[in-house]
Design brief:
By secondary structure, this protein is of the alpha/beta class. The protein folds into two domains: 7-120, 3-Layer(aba) Sandwich (Rossmann fold); 127-262, Arc Repressor Mutant, subunit A. 40% of the residues lie in helices and 18% in strands. Strands 2-1-3-4-5 form a five-stranded parallel sheet, sandwiched between helices. Bound molecules: calcium ion (CA).
């Protein structure tokens, strides 16, 4: 059973699709609020403080990209961008708008549910994280909104701080720093960085990173490239001028952290 406390905001101007997403997420255990415009969606995000936001790119009043950026300013929710156009999705992924996943219309409720489950399955800490992980794992957790402390056992085993070169990551508080500057990372970027830094000399293939972030069964390795690219830029610009990007591309294989004394 899902925790009944998970909340979602659906921003979509098409009535049928809004209904479909709302129904799909409700079946998945979310308490769903829906809006038909960007402005109304932003107001809902402000009042509901959701765990998940699905955001249509083509809205009547505000650009979905702008809405996404504004959501990011006020919310730690997972954001799924939805567009009817594949080329739009490709363009979006190159921008740093802070979305965690992307879906192309038409999609089935099952596909949306699978994507959402995969996002919430990622091990993470934070106030609502443990409950989400327990719920999404279907680990037979309690159904009354109370989460067993055992659900956080694997999380508590993580080291307090992980350092590599100029970068310090605190998995507990989900803060990443470059020297003394805090990086403004999305959940996906943070999870990616934590994974890379968990074995900084290992070369991580795109497929393995994809699985560690989204769970098994996904083939969209280009998503990993996009998130690595955004992460790299965000980290590099916090360092001193001319600092080498802390994540190296290993051609034909994947990614690894740079040597700690090189950045
Ligand atoms: Ca639309």
């Amino acid at each position: 059973m899902m925790s009944p406390t998970r909340t979602a905001v659906v921003v979509e101007d098409d009535d049928d699709i809004r209904e479909l997403i709302t129904h799909s997420l409700t079946m998945q255990g979310f308490d769903v609020s829906a809006a038909a415009s960007g402005q109304a969606g932003l107001e809902l995000v402000g009042s509901v403080d959701p765990d998940l936001v699905t955001l249509d790119l083509g809205l009547p009043d505000l650009d979905g990209i702008e809405v996404c950026r504004r959501v990011r300013d006020v919310s730690q929710a997972y954001v799924v961008m939805i567009s009817a156009r594949t080329d739009e999705i490709d363009r979006l992924m190159g921008l740093e708008i802070g979305a965690d996943d992307y879906l192309t219309k038409p999609f089935s409720p099952r596909e949306l549910q699978a994507r959402v489950n995969a996002m919430f399955r990622r091990p993470r800490t934070g106030a609502s994280g443990a409950a989400d992980v327990a719920a999404a794992n279907g680990a037979g957790g309690p159904t009354g909104g109370h989460v067993s402390p055992a659900a956080t056992a694997t999380v508590e085993a993580e080291p307090a701080l992980v350092r590599h070169g100029r970068i310090t990551v605190d998995p507990e508080s989900r803060v990443a720093m470059v020297d003394s500057h805090e990086a403004d990372l999305t959940r996906t970027e943070f999870d990616l960085l934590t994974t890379l830094m968990s074995a900084p000399r290992r070369v991580w293939s795109r497929a393995v990173l994809l699985e560690s972030l989204w769970g098994p069964g996904w083939s969209e390795e280009h998503l990993v490239e996009v998130h690595v690219g955004n992460l790299r830029r965000k980290l590099t610009r916090l360092g001193p001028a001319g600092m080498r990007a802390p994540i190296r591309t290993v051609r034909g294989v994947g990614y690894r952290m740079e040597e700690p004394d090189s950045f």
